[in-house]
Amino acid sequence: MDEHEQPRHRVVVIGAGFGGLFATKALKNAPVDVTLINGTAYHLFQPLLYQVATGILSEGEIAPPIREVLKRQKNAKTLLGTATHIDPVAKRVDVVAPGVAYSVEYDSLIVAAGASQSYFGKNEFADFAPGMKSIDDALELRGRIFGAFELAEIETDPAAIDRLLTFVVVGAGPTGVEMAGQIAELAHRHLPGQYHNIDPRQARIILVDALPTVLSTFGDHLSTEALRQLHKLGVEVELSTKVVDVDESGIEVETDNGRRRIESSTKIWAAGVAAPALSVQLAQATGAETDRAGRLKVNPDTTVPGHPEIYAVGDMMALDQLPGVAQVAIQSGRHAAGQIKKRLAGQPTGQPFKYFDKGSLATISRFSAVASVGRFHFAGLLGWLLWLVVHLLYLVGFKNRVTAVLHWFVSFIGRGRSERVATFQQVFARRALQEYQEKLP
Ligand SMILES: Cc1cc2nc3c(=O)[nH]c(=O)nc-3n(C[C@H](O)[C@H](O)[C@H](O)COP(=O)(O)OP(=O)(O)OC[C@H]3O[C@@H](n4cnc5c(N)ncnc54)[C@H](O)[C@@H]3O)c2cc1C
């Protein structure tokens, strides 16, 4: 830059999920330099994590490297690291990565750090019932699910076999329903014939939720249809049932009839989200309010109150009761980018973010899904075809789309599950990682 040239406007984006990545892309032709900071080197397509956990897709297919996704965007650079502190006065973000700490200054900041799993204050449940938020979670669950069938094959105690072949999924939202449906398909369709001592069809898949319905946000019609399809698959659905304790060998639930224990080696937590630590720190630093889940209450234009240069988008923002779904994140990320572009072009800003609801989808098994698009409701094959098209459209990267289709073909038309590998490290590293994270600055 020569001395007469104006420095370019610096936009820092925290988080390369749907919100951050689409915000960055929307700034492609803007006169800005974008620095995208993410805790991992990849963008994660969370809606397909359950397919990694159940051996349908490989982790790479749903997690393309951010660098590759943005390689043609000359005004964007990617940095690995976890933002730990935002200083809104100095306009600086402090970041840590393994063995390194650094800071990045900004003129505009888009915070899109997503959400984390909530165990409703019982974080100790996580050791026994991993959530479904990251590749680590999905691979650990993959190891636990396939590992349970392997251990059941060599076990001789009938009670232990029953425990190993009982899978409990907590939370009957889209993730829980999809997960339960896929484990049922594994047990009833893919694994039979591969074991000598056990019949995988004897596996029990139990879906538990404190609410009285499955897919409660989809409306009565689709909720009832989803329940019917789950029953058809052999999933036992226990509604109005609250999980009160989880340990290594089972789960305790409470209903109107009292407390009961379910013996189960494999528990999966698909209930509850909490805002990330950064949301709380940003709220403290700016005086912004948070909602009960810790999400940041933003202005209608997605800026943080009192800070027109800071935007919070996606799962970590609380605005108009919008749900934590990919489309809210994508559209709010693009809105924030649009506001920055307008500001730099000297145009009026502050327009409220308007969410365009494109609908909701959840698969239950192969060829069977429920979808709600505006006034229209689809169930069964039609819903599933819609699911297929939408996921292909939004899966990032051409290569990933091709190989995902190939794997879907293997799993849905054939009876294979091509991604069943889980290493010992993936299954047992939870403790080591916890110890490592405790030692981080
Ligand atoms: C298992 C599962 C299934 C889902 N299924 C669906 C579905 O079918 N349909 C749907 O619409 N939505 C679904 N969702 C919700 C959807 O994935 C989210 O709403 C969406 O990902 C939110 O986007 P985001 O950008 O706000 O956050 P995220 O996509 O979570 O991205 C946040 C990013 O920020 C990074 N990050 C976090 N903290 C920091 C930090 N301090 N510093 C640097 N980086 C940080 C993370 O590594 C991550 O890359 C699902 C979610 C899950 C977990």
UniProtKB/TrEMBL annotation:
Residue intervals of the FAD/NAD(P)-binding domain: 10-333
Signal sequence coordinates: none
Gene3D superfamilies per the UniProt record, alphabetical: 3.50.50.100
Q: Where are the transmembrane segments?
A: 376-396
Annotated GO MF terms: NADH dehydrogenase (quinone) (non-electrogenic) activity
Tell me yes or no: is Repressor among this UniProt entry's keywords: no
* The enzyme's E.C. designation: 1.6.5.9
Pfam families registered for this protein in UniProt: Pyr_redox_2
InterPro entries per the UniProt record, alphabetical:
FAD/NAD-bd_sf (IPR036188), FAD/NAD-binding_dom (IPR023753), NDH-2 (IPR045024)
**Keyword field:** FAD, Flavoprotein, Membrane, NAD, Oxidoreductase, Transmembrane, Transmembrane helix
> What's its catalytic activity?
a quinone + NADH + H(+) = a quinol + NAD(+)
Family to which the UniProt record says this protein belongs: Belongs to the NADH dehydrogenase family.
State what protein this is by name.
Answer: NADH:ubiquinone reductase (non-electrogenic)
User: What is the organism field in this record?
Assistant: Dactylosporangium matsuzakiense
Gene name, per UniProt, is: ndh
